[in-house]
Amino acid sequence: MEKEFQDLFQIRHNNDRVEVGKVLIAEPFLEGKYFNRSVVYIVEHDDSGSVGFVLNKPLPYTASELVKELDGVYFPVYIGGPVERNQLYYIHRRNDIPDSVQITDGIYWGGDFKAVTEMLQAGKILQEEIRFFAGYSGWTETQLDNELKENSWMVGTISADVLFTVPNSGLWEQVMSSLGGKHKLWANFPEDPILN
């Protein structure tokens, strides 16, 4: 029985590759306020490094409260990561925002902020079409590879619908569970077993 218990929690690296549009799923015991049980959506990944946004760490503020140009826009803002926390970033589903970068089919990053502001003020962008982030998560060219070798992250996929509509509180559990096998058990493991 003891061996079965140890085997259950032996982290095994999944063989999925990090690519733009995929997610990093924190292993159950990764610590830190930014990455504990986080799901990070990758928007840039090349030889110079990687950039992503934490999807499931909402701030207690709306866009309207943080950015004066977004007055009246009461969409949630998430902690994107520890880098440039005083900057607002966004991913969205609108192909009509100038200067946006296509991440995957139907998902875009950034774009002309003035155009976004005008569209939001006119009610032309719905809450389920855009997500705002304060800061981002960034890795140097070898840093993420090293963290993957240490099994700090699992690599998974996420659909556009899930990306923009799933309740934040259950996102880590849902994405971890989608990896199958023992990951389903990890998804249900309490964050603090002592309090269970």
What is shown here, in short?
The chain has 196 residues and is an alpha+beta fold. Helices cover 24% and strands 30% of the residues.
Terminal residue distance: 21 Å
Computed structural class? alpha+beta
Largest sheet: 10 strands, mixed
Number of strands: 10
Q: How large is the count of helical segments? A: 7
Average of per-residue pLDDT values = 84
> Rounded to an integer, what's the Rg over CA atoms?
18 Å
Order of helices and strands: HEEEEHEEEEHEHEHHH
Structure, explained:
Helix content is 24%, strand content 30%. It starts with a helix and ends in an 8-residue tail after the last helix. Strands 1, 2, 3, 4, 5, 6, 7, 8, 9 and 10 form a 10-stranded mixed sheet that branches. It contains 7 helices and 10 strands. 30% of the residues are buried. It is of the alpha+beta class. The protein is globular and about 45 Å long. The longest helix has 9 residues, at 113-121.
